[in-house]
Design goal:
Length: 122
């Protein structure tokens, strides 16, 4: 009977150990599920932050492009204005030369016309 009592006690201890093991395993499973949820939440938060920062970067890039385009437009306007002034000045100079030397101007115009005509024939 001593042997039977020892076997019963050993079996009871094994059952108790098995129950504790199942309880611990369930706790580990729950902890893993909780950690998985925390990781998913952290990844979602990181994705949201990355998306926000990307939008900010795109907005800054657009602002920079707008600034560069505005500067380029102002420079092009200044160049066009300078070219218009130069053309106007050249026109005035040519008018003055034609008024001062009309025969010379006509002779030069005829010579240029002749050269253009000869060049186009070839």
């Amino acid at each position: 009977m001593d042997e039977a009592a020892k076997d019963a006690a050993a079996e009871a201890a094994q059952d108790e150990a098995y129950a504790r093991l199942q309880k611990d395993l369930t706790a580990v499973k729950n902890d893993i599920a909780h950690l998985s949820q925390q990781i998913a939440d952290a990844v979602n938060a990181l994705a949201t932050i990355a998306q926000r920062e990307t939008k900010r970067g795109v907005r800054r890039a657009r602002e920079n492009v707008d600034t560069v385009m505005s500067d380029a437009s102002e420079r092009a306007s200044a160049v066009a204005s300078a070219a218009q002034e130069a053309a106007s000045s050249l026109q005035e100079s040519l008018e003055d030369v034609v008024q001062e030397r009309p025969l010379t101007s006509v002779a030069i115009a005829m010579a240029i016309g002749f050269l253009v005509g000869v060049t186009w024939r070839r």
